[in-house]
Amino acid sequence: MEEKMPSKNDLSALKGATQKPVILPSNDLPPAVETKPAKRAGQGVGRPPKQKAEKRSYKVTLSLTPSERAKLAKQSGLAGEATYLYAKLKEIGVI
Amino acid sequence: MKITIYSAKGSAGKTPIATNIALDREYAIGTNEQFHVFDSFIPDNRLLAVGLTEAFPEVPDGIDIVFDLAGAISEHSNSITSAVKQSDLVIVPIFNEVKSLNSGIGTIHEVSKFTQSILVVATKLQKQSGERFTGDWRKSRDYQNVAEAVSSSIDFDVPVLPLKFSKAFDAIFEKEQSIQQIMDNDPLAAYTYRDVSAQFDEIYKAIDGGKNAK
Question: Comparing C-alpha atoms, which of B55, B66, B58 is closest to residue B27?
Fold first, then answer.
């Protein structure tokens, strides 16, 4: 630490009387070189990405009368109207 | 004035006591600890660091110094014996725990081969369950156990002063100021640390009273 206080209780004259703490020499071996396994292409951290597939992102709006809608709902049952219609269009080869 | 703070038991409070004295009174510090903390806040010309087996040089009488010593006294611990021999007062911190009491009493026996100017500071005093006193920490069971152990094991007069457990001792190293200096700068600290500060005043009175004890 730099001297910042006046010379009260100054031990400078005694410093030569004490030996500096002995610091043991370090081992002369060359520093160890850290080796890392080569990174393979596509190998990153964590789960590999999913294959990019075509997403069903395009939406079609269909207008129905209440009775048509009731008929559709009855046929689609628990599957849901959009799911039922999608399956039917696939079935007849429209999509 | 040369003061040694020494106990063969670690964590008894040697370094906080030594540091507070050095900062309050601008004393020089002598240490035999390999990894001491004084470099950052004690000027180089006031710091004397030696190894455990190295002797401290004879410090001239005009210089005020506090020796903060670690390790056990043996034929090789020249740092401890050289500091104790030239000190006007040896402060032995002891706290109310079996190993500290044993080690503290053993330390007093060892130190008494060189000097009987010894002051015990009962450190880390805390209120135990059911203790209701205020102010006077001599009423604490922690203090009374230490005082009893000293009086029953040592056959010469060794005063025992109380020093309660306090966060103030952490603050000394965080702020690199003595407890009094912290209190002077912070009214809240002045209130919080009032007991421990008063206890240090008592230690200073004992130090000043021991100036001519050698």
Answer: B66
**What's the order of all strands across the beta sheet hosting B118-125?**
B47-49, B28-31, B65-69, B2-6, B89-95, B118-125, B160-164
Which residues are CB-contacts of A35 (< 8 A; sequence separation ≥ 6)? Answer: none
pTM of the model: 0.71
Whether residues B28 and A2 touch (CB distance < 8 A) is answered with no
CB–CB contact B49 A1 (8 Å):
no
Nearest to B137, CA basis, from B101, B169, B161: B161
Are B11 and B97 within 8 A, CB to CB?
Answer: no
Task: Give the tens place of pLDDT for each residue, B145-200.
Answer: 999 999 999 999 999 999 999 999 999 999 999 999 999 999 899 999 999 999 99
CA-closest candidate to residue B20, choices B211, B209, B210, B199: B199
- Which ipTM was obtained for this model? 0.71
B125, B153 Cβ separation under 8 angstroms: no
**Is residue B118 helix, strand or coil?**
strand
The residues in B 10-69 lying below 8 A from A, measured between CB atoms, are: 26-28, 34, 39-51, 54, 56-57, 59, 63-65
Q: Is A18 within 8 Å of B41 when comparing Cβ atoms?
A: no
